[in-house]
Amino acid sequence: MARPNDLKYSDITPESAYLNRRQLMAGLVGAGAAGAGMMAAAGAQAQTMPDFEISGFDTSETPNTFEEITTYNNFYEFGTDKGDPARNAHTLTTDPWAVEIDGMVERPGSYDLGDILSKVNIDERIYRFRCVEAWSMVIPWNGFELRELLDLAGVQPSAKYVRFETLYRPDEMIGQNRAVIDWPYVEGLRLDEAMHPLTIMATGLYGKELPNQNGAPLRLVVPWKYGFKSIKSVVKITLMDTQPENTWKAINHREYGFYSNVNPEVSHPRWSQASERRIGSGLFAGRLATLKFNGYEEQVASLYSGMDLSVNY
Ligand code: MTE
Q1: Kind and range of the H or E element at 123?
Q2: Which protein residues are within 6 Å of ligand 1, measured from CB?
């Protein structure tokens, strides 16, 4: 299947140069383009590298390596150990792929992924990613805003929530042969959260096609929420007027909520959420302080004005 994100900047640039340029650009933006030396360096880089856009949402923190992002995963459909998805997910067939969109939409139906990708804008987003288990990464995703896909289907005014469902195919997803979870994995967002420009459907990382263990060919990424909201390998999206169930809340509602916004002030019963371990930072590296809404407070806090976030956790 032809994918518009097949050829990305990083395909024709070694990963180290890619990171350097990202860091350089971030530095220039942050410093208001001050410093003749940096400008000269940027000019020299620009001669050898194609242009690309910074979306405005990117963090300037150093991304984790491709290796780290693709070998330390949670994807229970392929096993419960962090290394299981990388070992087992090669069995998943991701082409052809379609997403069923139904419920309160004008144009319900089965949307072929190739078709979807020909109609949306694939962008690069370097996002912080924070798991409820108190580890974190920085991930350069490729993807498109979820609202573009919802607009294709036409959301009806009565819709208030979006429900997502992962593929159920135990022949190809070895973990689904055990009742660890009530399969399929499901998640949900409020409609305004789903329509927020930070919310993307990822189709790649580091300019490469999304590896199966990261939720190929299409997974949700909501960077201000704990990682379990970012449901993988999505096959169904339903627009509803009631709050949908989500897998981890259904398993244990005292530990996991519907909103699941990253919040250092509200601890999980088994993990303090005040700090986090950045994957790849070494065993003896200090822990990072966790930021409210995972650092996206300015962009998303207004979605929750007037809500008690310790009740709506
Ligand atoms: N989606 C499905 N279908 N199954 C899962 O087990 N795990 C969630 C989320 N999406 C999960 C899922 C959890 S707990 C996390 S932290 C992230 O995926 C991990 O994403 P990553 O492996 O790409 O880092």
Answers
A1: strand 123-130
A2: 73-77, 131, 166, 185, 214-215, 227-228, 230-233
Question: And the tokens for 249?
Answer: 């809340």
Phi, psi of 141 (to 5 degrees): -85, 155
Separation between Cα atoms, residue 199 and residue 246, nearest integer Å: 17
**How long is the chain?**
313
Q: State both tokens at 259.
A: 């909103």
The CATH number of the domain covering residues in 55-304: 3.90.420.10
**Over the stretch 66-110, which tens digit does the pLDDT of each residue have?**
999 999 999 999 999 999 999 999 999 999 999 999 999 999 999
Tell me the H-state helices in 72-138: 84-88, 113-119
Distance CA 172, CA 148 (A): 30
Query: Which pLDDT value is given to residue 14?
Result: 38
- Ligand 1 pocket: which of 232, 236, 271, 294 to mutate (most atoms within 8 A of CB): 232
Say how many Å lie between the CA of residue 128 and the centre of ligand 1: 15
Tokens encoding 231 = 């449901």
Say how far apart CA 171 and CA 175 lie, in whole Å. 10
Integer Cα distance of 23 and 308 in angstroms: 37
139 is written with which tokens? 């991930």
Predicted confidence (pLDDT) per residue in 8-52, tens digit: 333 333 344 444 444 444 433 333 333 333 333 333 333 333 334
In degrees to the nearest 10, what's the CA dihedral of 182, 139, 126, 137?
90
